[in-house]
């Protein structure tokens, strides 16, 4: 089992709160996690989603593609979380923060390279 990420999100959202924020059922949130469109990890027995990965009433546009690339490269959810939150000032602080802006293409390129 992987160690939990040390540097991480500034905040977390529970699945019921995320369901409400996105305006979808809790089962839809679980489906998004199963399909790899959304990242959730357990902390103290509760599944949580990094708050930065959800903008307004939607998941960040490029997140599902990035998660697919990382999972295809063999990353589990904890490792994907660690990769997204690894400090990197060239991406505005880390890859997760880079997803929300003009650095998204570079984040995707780096995720593609992670498999090699």
From TrEMBL:
Cross-referenced InterPro entries: Rv2175c_C, Rv2175c_wHTH
Ranges of residues in domain DNA-binding protein Rv2175c wHTH: 12-53
Source superkingdom: Bacteria
Domain Rv2175c C-terminal: 61-114
GO MF entries: DNA binding
Protein name, UniProt field: Uncharacterized protein
Organism expressing this protein natively: Actinoplanes missouriensis (strain ATCC 14538 / DSM 43046 / CBS 188.64 / JCM 3121 / NBRC 102363 / NCIMB 12654 / NRRL B-3342 / UNCC 431)
């Amino acid at each position: 089992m992987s160690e939990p990420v040390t540097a991480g999100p500034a905040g977390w959202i529970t699945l019921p709160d995320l369901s409400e924020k996105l305006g979808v059922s809790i089962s839809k949130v679980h489906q998004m996690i199963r399909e790899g469109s959304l990242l959730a990890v357990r902390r103290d027995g509760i599944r949580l989603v990094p708050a930065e990965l959800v903008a307004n009433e939607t998941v960040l546009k490029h997140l599902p593609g990035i998660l697919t690339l990382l999972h295809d490269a063999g990353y589990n959810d904890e490792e994907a979380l660690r990769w997204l939150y690894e400090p990197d000032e060239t991406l505005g602080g880390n890859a997760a923060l880079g997803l929300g802006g003009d650095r998204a293409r570079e984040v995707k390129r780096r995720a593609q390279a992670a498999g090699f």
